[in-house]
Amino acid sequence: MEKYLPHNFLAEKMILSCLLTNFEAVDVTIKSIPIEAFYFKNHQEIYKAIIFMYQNKLSVDILSLTIFLQENGLLLQVGGIKVLLELINQIPNLIYLDEYIRLVKDKFLRRSLIKFGYKIINSGYVTNVPLENILNNLENELFNLVNEIKIEKTFNSRVLLKSIFSELKKKFLNPTFPGLPSGFSSLDSLTQGFQKSDLIIIAGRPSIGKTALSLNIILNVIKISRLPIIFFSLEMSKEQIMYRLLAIETQINQLRLKNGKLYQNDWIKLNKIIKIISKMPFFIDDSPNLSIQKIRSQIKNILLEQTKVGLVIIDYLQLMQNSEFKSVNRVEELSQITRSLKNLAREFNIPIIALSQLSRNVDNRIDQKPILSDLRESGSIEQDADLVLMLYRIKSLNFNLNQDQTLSITELSIAKQRNGPLGTIKLAFYKNQTKFTDLNMITEV
To answer: Do 211 and 355 form a contact (C-beta atoms < 8 A)?
Structure first.
């Protein structure tokens, strides 16, 4: 007895019937399922013909489809006029189109999974390709397949308003930030914390303190929320990151810390802070070749161990590369990466912070306050980001307190906030300790 791959014959017929009787159904369907989602070859040919007619602004109905198929020598191939007449006799209900699409897509993804399984087996026999390359390619395919499996739900206004009312009631009884507090009160008052599913960009020129600020945020978030944080460092090693964290928490000069020139009191502070940091749910990945797939895989690994992830930080965006998006145009490649990061934020419902370089245009201007167009290789960075923070130093305010404390005043400008106000906050930056402190000063733009 022949064993068929998963399919749903009736659901395929109902979709094609909807397309022939309801013109508005065509746009919805072609955005939801590809041609190969149909299992039967004649259904694929009919669907392909409907797509061609729709895209070329031709009328889509039983008569025009029959003529089109006949003129292109495809009528007999799809089963003749009898098959087409059966489609319009189905009397479909457009209300259930989404359900028909879901059924067909479900079977298509199951077939794709079976095909992927065979590919894994066959890949095991390939010995002339490095195993790492094979596993990376398989991981990419699995990543794309998992993304396709996500079911988009549509909710009516009654359900949504009920959920919103319940959420507002909780906030009224227990006032809290809707997002993760950064630990900088001036910033949190403007942003209400880092929101779930948001892509946040922290941009600045080199050596301005982007990494230091992100580490300060990490420590603040962990202390306040106790949620795990994953830090992807493409520029610094995990050891360098830990030295910076120790400098922030112990307030010991980073250079003395690295050289081991410590006083007796330093050892006491160091011992205490090491015990505290070692218990923090903080994870570092300093892999030099970071991909979207690797980020996703690491998030899932942490979720298996910790059940929750509070925040993901990437240092920094322009060092990321992805073979899947390789393009002659670096701007286009980076745009694809930022779009994927935004999708990851939505998939795991967590805020993702990506550090970004600014172009040299800033240095050539009299007013060196960065603007969105200064984002290096910007592409769609500012479009995909929900929140863009620009870090820059006010050079005129610079104080040398002592050997361990070199203080400068930095500004953090909210250049974009999708659902909030713009503004500028001032921070004190102790360079030798890589520590930021909020000055609680807000200047509205």
So the answer is: yes
